[in-house]
Structures are given as structure tokens and as C-alpha cells.
Amino acid sequence: AEAERDRMSALLRTFTAAVPGVVYAKDLDGRMLVANHGTTELIGKPPEFYLGKTDVEFLDDKAQARQVMATDRRIMQGGKVEQIEERVDMPDGSAAIWLSVKGPLLDDSGQVIGLIGSSIDVTARKTAETALLELNRTLEVRIAQAIAEREAAEAALRQSQKMEAIGQLTGGIAHDFNNLLAGITGSLDLIKLRLTQG
Hints:
The longest helix is centred in the last third of the chain and has 74 residues, at 123-196. By secondary structure, the protein is an alpha+beta fold. It has helices at residues 2-18, 37-43, 47-50, 55-58, 62-78, 123-196, and strands at residues 22-27, 32-35, 82-87, 97-106, 112-121. The model has no long low-confidence stretch (mean pLDDT 90). A five-stranded antiparallel beta sheet has the order 2-1-5-4-3. Strand 4 (97-106) and strand 5 (112-121) form a beta hairpin.
């Protein structure tokens, strides 16, 4: 039995070490039972420091630790697997967003005895999504400005066409009026000439 237990423990350690990202198991009180190398990198301390302790005891940011523990309790009480995004900063203080899949850890009889989870760092993806949203917002503003400039140019063109039409109309009226005046002026010149002739 001891040999089988040791073999299974070694297999479990090998399995958790091989899984990328952060893999862990916690008991009902939130104490870390098993964790892989990714967890050690996230916490920034050796396993001897964090195994058997809760997030509040080993994470530097206590507010983040309390949030993680509240989420873990909710999942254990709810009895369902959840996928969530959590913020747990890196040991150097840099912000990190983690996509976590957490579920209740069950014993052979189906009773919840803890929590298992895995997390991957999605900070770069979230940063890219934020940048893309900002780019989309900027693009929408630029498009709105371009549309406004185009509408202003079209309005100016319409105004210019109106002014051109009014100019042509005015020119036509002036030409017609000039033709009428030419006849009247010619008749007046004839009257003047006849008056001078008596």
C-alpha cells in the first residue's frame, strides 16, 4: 500500500509538473495542497513556503488574495466548475490577468473536499484586446471626422453650385435686360437725332 501510495504521489507530482500554466489543489479551508512549477513562479516563493497555507498567508496583495479565496469558496459551495478571469499580480508587482478553470475536488463518495484549478496568464491577450478596443474607438472617431469633413465638403460644393447657378441666372437676366435697354437706347438716340433736326 505504501509503495502504491508513493508511486501515485510520484505520478501526481510528474503530472502537475508537466501541465503548463498554473495547476493546484486546495483543501476546504483554501490551504494549498498540491501545486506545479507555474504556481511557484506565480507566487515567487518555493513550495515549502506556500504549501499548507492559504492565499492570504502567501500572496503579497491581501485584497487580491481575499478575492481569490471568496471565489474559491463560492465554487466549492456551488459544486460546479467555473471559468473566470482573476487578477493576481506577479512577484515583481507587474499586473497579471489569469484565465482560471476551477472546480470542486470530490472524494470517492462525491463529497466536496477542496478545490482544483488551473490558470493561464492572459495578460498579453487582455492588453491586446484593450489596444484593439482603443484602436476601434479611435478608428470610429476618425471615420466620424472623415464623414463630417466629407459632408462639409459636399455642402460647400452644393453651395458653390447654387452660387454658380445664381451667377448664370443673373448673367442671363442681365444679358436679356441689356438687350431690352439696347433697343430703348437706340430709340432714344433716334428721338434725340430727330429733335435736333427739328
